[in-house]
Amino acid sequence: MRMTGLFFNTLRETPADAETVSHQLLVRAGYVRKLTSGIYTYLPLMLRVIKKISGIIREEMDAAGAQELLMPILQPEELWRETGRWEVYGKELMRIEDRHGRMGALGPTHEEIITALVRDEIKSYRQLPINLYQIQDKFRDEIRPRFGLLRGREFLMKDAYSFDADEAGLEENYQKMARAYTNIFNRCGLETRMVRSDSGAIGGSVSHEFMVLTGTQSGENDVLYCDSCDYAANSNRAESRMPPADTNGKFPEAKEVDTPGIKSIEDLAGFFGIEQSAICKSLIYIADKKPVMALIRGDRAIEETKLKNALGADDIRIAGDAEIRECTGLEPGFLGPAGVNIKIVGDESIKELENFVTGINKADKHLSGAGWNREIELPETIADIRLAQPGDICPECPGKLEITRGIEVGNIFKLGTKYSEKMKANFTDENGREKPFIMGCYGIGVSRTAAAAIERYHDKDGILWPMAIAPYHAVVVPVNVSDELQMSTAEKIYNDLLDSGIETVIDDRDERPGVKFKDADLIGFPIRITVGKTLAEGMVEVKSRVGGEVLKVPLEQAAARVRELKESKNV
Fold it and tell me: Cα separation of 310 and 151, whole Å?
């Protein structure tokens, strides 16, 4: 490919709406262009990256025994109603109505469609197991599309679905997919970690995410991991054991105390001269349009996904002061569990509290020296609803949890019979009995993987693509296109590289050398061959984008040296 014919345009200024490095560089380097909020056109350079990632996915999925198909993007309302997700999925589901008044949706995922297909096609255990996958556009009406390709309204995804006769078969498929995913991301040049996660709207009993760990400066999720074992989990799923803390207020008796204007946990601790860990914090949430009170130790925070799961709710949010007064008649800032007639959920941490401080639903008053099942009843519902934090003790060993940032690029779910039972998708077992399929679901964000690679690999000059997914392996840069010797030499090297299977572009633009070099770095070509002043010595310069090492190579050895670099893990 010649740069004069390549459809691209680089930008020197960072787009004002680009928050993440990947978004900034994809726009600046001519990979994508925004059509509207959360929707992007993939330009030729980007499409080459996407095709390479997709090719790796197909090879590994096929090797794991999965078969590719292609399902419709447009999905009928009726199938979503069979599973109950037409209402549950919420506003993220892009709903449409056709000219006949029939409702449908643009698929954000395909559990209903694949289950309906297999329900009609597979009748016997002899046809199992089976794993079917596709690579296709998905649509989600994100409330706030952001981060470029990391959270858009239209995106490219690989989704696979396994069907088994029993749990043992599901476990085998789950492990196969876990291995395949590890291979896929390794081949893409991405080190990932398999972390426990919340199943969300997809559902199922067990789920894991594959996260590209990016450190503390970038990424969209907090990942907590053990410093001594393999435990790792998304923050909305992470479990922990709390280190020792002072949970006894040591008050001689229970007493109602005037606390004028003192509402925060920090101020309460100072007022009473106790640790925050000796305070019971009460918060009001709206869960499926109903108020609920959540209790937690004063020095800890609620994890809302855990709370939602503990309540079995579809939607949850913190209540505002006006809502608290309107829905409960209670006073914000002085909340407590005593005498409350709404549902209460307590975190496990509150069981340790003794002689503690709590609100009593009276303005400017708190209760000190409270005790469970003495002054206040311990809630019936106790669950892990707290946000795990660095320094907590690992749930699986004596090690401590640490935190980093990560980007989810894949996820796997054990769905069990969640969809097959609701949709009456059954098979006949070896004894002639009808049973629901045991299902698994496995997704990879193809476009997210490309963006995650940039988040992980970039520098101040541009993108540092892993060789396997770079749009081209090399660029040949003649410094002066008016110099016939330089151009003829550059053309020969270019053709030699193409003949040897090296995907190469030649920058034949009549531009200043600095412009060409800056564009090459910004776009992220892994290898640059410069044909310039060293040609008088019979040499050309070969530069690795990663590390910036520049080698002067004899002209006749240039193609061979580039081939070596392409195979090198250090590029």
Answer: 27
Helix (H), strand (E) at residue 565:
helix 558-567
CA-only gyration radius of the chain, Å:
29
Contact 143, 389 (CB under 8 A): no
DSSP track, 284-353: EEEETTEEEEEEEETTS-B-HHHHHHHHT-S-EEEPPHHHHHHHH---TTS--STT--SEEEEEGGGGG-
In this structure, what are the phi and psi dihedrals at residue 499, rounded to the nearest 5 degrees? -65, -30
Percent of the chain beyond pLDDT 70? 98
**DSSP H or E stretch at residue 444:** strand 438-445
**Residues 6 or more apart from 191 whose CB is under 8 A from it?**
185, 212, 213
Residue 77: pLDDT over 60 = yes
The CA-atom distances, in angstroms, between 283 and each of 223, 316, 336, 359 are 25, 13, 8, 11
Q: What is the CATH number assigned to the segment(s) 255-383?
A: 3.90.960.10
Q: Under CATH, which number does the domain 21-196+413-455 receive?
A: 3.30.930.10
**pLDDT computed for residue 330 by the predictor:** 87
Size (the chain), residues = 571
pLDDT tens column, 520-530: 999 999 999 99
Q: Are 289 and 342 in contact (CB under 8 A)?
A: no
Q: What is the spatial distance between Cα 214 and Cα 191, in angstroms, rounded to a whole number?
A: 10
Instruction: Pick 472-567's CATH classification: 1.20.140.10, 3.30.390.50, 3.40.50.800, 3.90.1700.10.
Output: 3.40.50.800
Q: Are 148 and 40 in contact (CB under 8 A)?
A: yes
pTM as predicted: 0.87
Domain boundaries, the chain: 21-196+413-455, 255-383, 472-567
Give residue 552's pLDDT: 95
Per-residue pLDDT at 571: 42
Q: Tokens 């569990």 correspond to what residue?
A: 337
Chain segment 377-400, per-residue pLDDT in tens: 999 999 999 999 999 999 999 999
What pLDDT is attached to residue 217?
59
Confidence at residue 199, expressed as pLDDT on a 0 to 100 scale: 64
Share of the chain above pLDDT 90, in %: 85
Are 269 and 275 in contact by the 8 Å Cβ rule? The answer is yes
